[in-house]
Amino acid sequence: MPWCSACDRYFAPSAVNSDGTCPECGRGVDPGGATVATDEDLPRVPWHLKLLLGALAVYLGYRVWEGIAWVWQHVG
Q1: Domain co-membership, 37 together with 47
Q2: How far apart are CA 1 and CA 9, in angstroms?
Q3: I want to staple 22 with a disulfide (CB 3.0 to 4.6 A). Which of 4, 8, 48, 49 is the partner?
């Protein structure tokens, strides 16, 4: 969390001015680990999450097909 020692308070990273100064007093703030993430900083999606999402899609597709067959059987 960005910290302004002159104002003695924390700020949200989006509340700090673009040049890294305090919006109230104009002095520089200590970023405290608040950095802007780029595409290179983001971790990759794990393979097992992709597998889980694929299995979920297959399961839900099967349940939709089963529901359509049930409605078709009871209506027609």
Answers
A1: no
A2: 10
A3: 4
What is the rounded distance in angstroms from the CA atom of residue 59 to the CA atom of residue 65?
10
**How many domains is the chain built from?**
2
Token code pair at residue 25: 């007093």
DSSP code of 18? T
Are the beta carbons of 32 and 3 closer than 8 angstroms?
A: yes
Helix, strand, or coil (residue 4) = strand
Tokens standing for 56? Answer: 């979920």
- Count Cβ atoms within 10 A of the Cβ of residue 47 and give its class: 0-12 exposed, 13-18 middle, 19 or more buried: exposed
- Do residue 15 and residue 49 come from a single domain? no
